[in-house]
């Protein structure tokens, strides 16, 4: 179908009536569907069922005889450190393996930098009049929530096709010592699906920052979460920073939340040995160590990196059809030209959709009123403010294919409806 | 034996020679024993072996259908909240059940109070020129480490027979608004073994504090850790605070670290509903929830409070003989009158021993030189400073009875030796 603008008034009104009728039909279905969060579905969780009972009452010792039941081991079991180091392509001396949440590692790291001097910090961030973080957007709402919680001013950075707009980034960090960090989801980014190009990674590592203690918060949440057989590759930021003579610049985060179990996985943090030593010393005040039995479970179940990679192919086999279904519905139902654009991600958990400016909030509200919950419009931007009110994050993994079909059809219907309404309004009809 | 002071010079020198000879014999044994930390022994860990494999690939749903594998549930599974509420004698609405470390809950709570306003706080503690905590001593070194880490000034409070010296406490908190908290291990206290009397609990709840946001950090680590069939009872501090019209004054902490597994247990925090609501809101920035599978394991394995209580009797059966052995050796080997005093705890993990002033450091060093590691002298006091250098914490649970016998005999030998040396020095011999 051509652009809405090319329809005559009568055709436009007829089209609007048909859409309105369809929307009422949807409302009558009393749907209760959720496409709001990047949650694995039951079939995905079932892939890791063996994790639950892979240990036994005679199997609780780690390879070097460590009794995983007792206290100790602040940075994780040696064998899990080795495996996680392989995942993140770092050395075992550059990693800490912790409990079930990488979000906790990020939150706590920001808190530590506020209350204590990071290596390279002249003063704890909390003693400075203002701290700012760069936030490539759309991005992950929980990163932004951490900033807001700690009173860190967020500066929005645009995304280009291969990562954040580095011209903006470089200019800002060179000029302002209050800018202490940047949030990055560098691979299959939440929600854009973008993987940072080598050029972007290199510029991030090399750029001059006014703050000597500037840190890249590199949330590599989807490192292994490919949807195709030709996965994106991401340059190693730790190596890049070391080469660029900024060895302590980056903290890398990941977890098995979307590999094993979201609620009962293991989280990891990689960085320079200097940062790791600093962090271990701080963590010793906070804990006597992570749950080593759960780390041992992950070793027993996955065995090695290739075990995890095979496992990830089984995840992809379950969720790829869901992505395809949604993309297909977007393609066919958003037939009006130039109404929307969307990503075709090669991995990760989201489809990123941009409506015409000014429509996202209305679409999300309208979908909710017919029983489909989407991520709140604006949530993917700092302070919840999407400047163009156009970004919608679609999380297709949790619903069944049947539910997803309905949810995606409703979503596209709402977009068509709101866009047509807008066009009618413009024409004073 | 009479007091050392009553021996004549020649008898004293002869006694000293015999002791020195025995010490050399010990050194020749090349012992490698550790009585330094309150760690459960292997036999204790074996009591909970069933916890490792009590779930299965068909058992991962909580009572109300919650899939414990997935995200969610910031304050813990409803059934574990119910069980933990029974342990701490509070309502399920007054509790949060978290990951494997109550130390983390304490550390993070202090960090939150520094960075954000507690209910009743006029300003985050970190914005004040100084914060102080009261530290009944000897106490738990990790509490003191948290204070030191966050730059909180520690004020030492003496212990009387039934708890901290409340005259000191009341006077201080009434006069100084910078005093924001007190650390308490109210039952079978680490290391004194004291259980706070009802009178002490009531005074803590009732006392007037200059700081409106004064908080009691009530680390009830040994709530169920009895060594006898006539356990101490502890008044409920939450109820006492509510009655005294200071409903938000206390935070109660506990864990199953010394019930199930130290490394893979569950931790809990109880407080007023106001504090709990405040805390949950803060935790949502930090995590998507605790490991619910491990919480479910604890429900399946222990079933209910009486299951835990029976389990604790099995712990006592293993460790009571260790306490008895050490107490017996102290009684028989420290035969010289008035050389030492020590606790006879009815529960908990420690025997508290006081030497003559000025001897503790030397004793601990001397024992280490013969291969027995004790808790560092002074560690049980703020800043590691025991004003009289006399306190030694004995942790008898980890070593075997055979090892413990050697370790306790060496300890008493070192005490006798150092004390005799001291007496010789006094006489100029």
Task: Kindly list the characteristics that best describe this protein.
homodimer; 429 residues; alpha/beta; Aspartate Aminotransferase, domain 1; Aspartate Aminotransferase, domain 2; eight-stranded mixed sheet; 13% strand
Q: How would you describe this structure to a colleague?
A:
Two copies of one chain form a homodimer. Chain A is an alpha/beta fold. The first copy, chain A, has two domains: 4-44 and 309-426, Alpha-Beta Complex (Aspartate Aminotransferase, domain 1), CATH 3.90.1150; 61-302, Type I PLP-dependent aspartate aminotransferase-like (Major domain) (Aspartate Aminotransferase, domain 2, 3-Layer(aba) Sandwich), CATH 3.40.640. Chain A is built from 13 helices and 13 strands. Chain A has helices at 9-28, 42-46, 78-88, 102-115, 141-149, 166-175, 198-206, 237-243, 273-286, 292-302, 305-333, 360-369, 401-426, and strands spanning 33-35, 95-97, 132-137, 153-160, 163-164, 179-184, 215-219, 250-255, 267-270, 341-342, 351-354, 372-374, 391-394. In chain A, the strands form three sheets. In chain A, strands 2-9-8-7-6-3-4-5 form an eight-stranded mixed sheet, sandwiched between helices. Chain A has a three-stranded antiparallel sheet with strand order 10-11-13, covered by helices on one side. In chain A, a hairpin with an 8-residue loop joins strand 10 and strand 11. Chain A is globular. The two termini of chain A are 21 Å apart. Chains A and B meet through helix 4, helix 5, helix 9 and helix 10 of A and helix 4, helix 5, helix 9 and helix 10 of B.
